């Protein structure tokens, strides 16, 4: 086989299993099981070569190790994770049968606990429109991405909380600005489950639909 | 609190699952492998976000299963430094206050990062903030089950993968591994105004 585009194939090609070889696995298209049938006599050799290739030098194991391409590709708000987990739960409920297999137990545990945690925060009542409105309103305050994310996740109602989340807030924000920021946050973001009782005292027109009797 | 991590991995689908849609099988396999597990230097993996690319699937000699290289994004719990989080007190010990988020338990607030002055009440095994006002000292107890707001000041990853046979001599000298280390721990601090039990700071 003199096709230059396939470096793994050569006189000793049968001993190197495709895909295990470092290099471009895309060179091989699809399962080549029929080729192995052709080389009958070499069958046993190729098997042992493959298993030794796998068990041996990790450098030769090409695409078989898990690799992290970017450990910080994007920050997610609690609302986005809440949405994702709720959708996942719905999907799994519909497909029914294999939820309880031992392999799925970890996923069940982590989704249940994380959902439980986020449901107790104000993020539960948010929506994509609210988040968009919030971020547009935040543009004028000149905060960093991390600060805006914390405000979105926690919905602070007091000045002391703002000071915790915004770095060097005494230097960057005056008292009126902090008040304005608080007002934006509390008016755009809906209150959390426990904060509803505390909201009664304030004169903000409540965004939440539930009636806290 | 949560970040998206882009990863690449080879997923093995056994032949008896070939009738299922490949995407569903891969989703399940990835979640089975990563959900609720801590990845070294990455964080606690929660669930799969999406699959960005599927490369060709190969069948290797001697193994009937298909192997597919998958590029995907995973939701990982990995708070950034100085992030404010709210958790529940799980317990107190002389090492500090242990806080839990429900899905993540290994958060410690060491004694020096508590609101000062603080003392450990041996009888009740609880940390106390001795808050001074003009009236006198109030003892504010940090009881179990209370919600606290804290700042993440440090994180540490421990590689808990099993050691090879070469260290067997060292391991056999001690009966068992001394203690099970948590693969991912966070250090918190509540020494600023606004931090600590939520009940301390709600205006009444």
From TrEMBL, chain A:
The keyword Ligase does not apply. The keyword Thylakoid does not apply. Keywords: Cell membrane, DNA-directed RNA polymerase, Membrane, Nucleus, Transcription. Residues 66-192 form the RNA polymerase Rpb4/RPC9 core domain. Residues 1-29, 189-213 are annotated as: Disordered. It holds the Pfam family RNA_pol_Rpb4. GO terms for molecular function: nucleotide binding. It is found in: Cell membrane; Nucleus. Residues 1-13 have a biased composition (Low complexity). Its main location: membrane. It is a peripheral membrane protein. GO terms for cellular component: plasma membrane; RNA polymerase III complex. GO terms for biological process: transcription initiation at RNA polymerase III promoter. Component of the RNA polymerase III complex consisting of 17 subunits: a ten-subunit horseshoe-shaped catalytic core composed of POLR3A/RPC1, POLR3B/RPC2, POLR1C/RPAC1, POLR1D/RPAC2, POLR3K/RPC10, POLR2E/RPABC1, POLR2F/RPABC2, POLR2H/RPABC3, POLR2K/RPABC4 and POLR2L/RPABC5; a mobile stalk composed of two subunits POLR3H/RPC8 and CRCP/RPC9, protruding from the core and functioning primarily in transcription initiation; and additional subunits homologous to general transcription factors of the RNA polymerase II machinery, POLR3C/RPC3-POLR3F/RPC6-POLR3G/RPC7 heterotrimer required for transcription initiation and POLR3D/RPC4-POLR3E/RPC5 heterodimer involved in both transcription initiation and termination. Belongs to the eukaryotic RPC9 RNA polymerase subunit family. DNA-dependent RNA polymerase catalyzes the transcription of DNA into RNA using the four ribonucleoside triphosphates as substrates. Specific peripheric component of RNA polymerase III (Pol III) which synthesizes small non-coding RNAs including 5S rRNA, snRNAs, tRNAs and miRNAs from at least 500 distinct genomic loci. With POLR3H/RPC8 forms a mobile stalk that protrudes from Pol III core and functions primarily in transcription initiation. Pol III plays a key role in sensing and limiting infection by intracellular bacteria and DNA viruses. PANTHER family: CALCITONIN GENE-RELATED PEPTIDE-RECEPTOR COMPONENT PROTEIN (PTHR15561), DNA-DIRECTED RNA POLYMERASE III SUBUNIT RPC9 (PTHR15561:SF0). This is DNA-directed RNA polymerase III subunit RPC9. The lineage of its organism: Eukaryota, Metazoa, Chordata, Craniata, Vertebrata. The gene is CRCP.
């Amino acid at each position: 086989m003199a096709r230059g585009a396939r470096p793994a194939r050569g006189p000793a090609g049968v001993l190197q299993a495709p895909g295990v070889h470092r290099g471009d696995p895309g060179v091989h298209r699809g399962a080549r099981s029929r080729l192995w049938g052709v080389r009958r006599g070499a069958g046993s050799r190729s098997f042992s070569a493959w298993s030794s290739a796998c068990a041996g030098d990790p450098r030769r194991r090409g695409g078989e190790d898990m690799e992290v391409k970017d450990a910080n590709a994007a920050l997610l708000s609690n609302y986005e994770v809440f949405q994702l987990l709720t959708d996942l739960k719905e999907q799994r409920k519909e497909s029914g049968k294999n939820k309880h297999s031992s392999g799925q137990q970890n996923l069940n545990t982590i989704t249940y606990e994380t959902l439980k945690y986020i449901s107790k925060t104000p993020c539960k009542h948010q929506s994509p429109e609210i988040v968009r409105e919030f971020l547009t309103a935040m543009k004028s305050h000149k905060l960093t991405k991390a600060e805006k994310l914390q405000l979105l996740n926690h919905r602070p109602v007091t000045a002391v909380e703002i000071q915790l989340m915004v770095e060097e807030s005494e230097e960057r924000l005056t008292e009126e600005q902090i008040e304005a920021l608080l007002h934006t946050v509390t008016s755009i973001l809906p209150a959390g489950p426990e904060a509803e009782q505390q909201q009664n005292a304030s004169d903000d027109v409540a965004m939440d639909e539930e009636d806290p009797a | 609190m949560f970040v998206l991590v882009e990863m690449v991995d080879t997923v093995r689908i056994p032949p008896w699952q070939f009738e299922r849609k490949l995407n569903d099988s891969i989703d399940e396999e990835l979640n089975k492998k990563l959900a609720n597990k801590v990845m070294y230097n990455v964080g606690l993996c929660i669930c799969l976000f999406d699959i960005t690319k599927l490369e060709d699937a190969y069948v290797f000699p001697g193994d009937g299963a298909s192997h597919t290289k998958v590029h995907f994004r995973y939701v990982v719990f990995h708070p950034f430094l100085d992030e404010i989080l709210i958790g529940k007190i799980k317990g107190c010990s002389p090492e500090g206050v242990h806080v839990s988020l429900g899905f993540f338990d290994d958060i410690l607030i060491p004694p020096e990062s508590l609101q000062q002055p603080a003392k450990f009440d041996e009888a009740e095994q609880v940390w106390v903030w001795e808050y001074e006002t003009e009236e006198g000292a109030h003892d504010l107890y940090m009881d179990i089950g209370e919600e606290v707001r804290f700042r993440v000041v440090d994180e540490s990853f421990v590689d808990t993968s099993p050691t090879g046979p070469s260290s067997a001599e060292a391991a056999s000298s001690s009966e068992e591994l001394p203690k099970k280390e948590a693969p991912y721990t966070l250090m918190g601090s509540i020494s600023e105004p606004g931090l600590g039990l939520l009940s301390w700071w709600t205006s009444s």
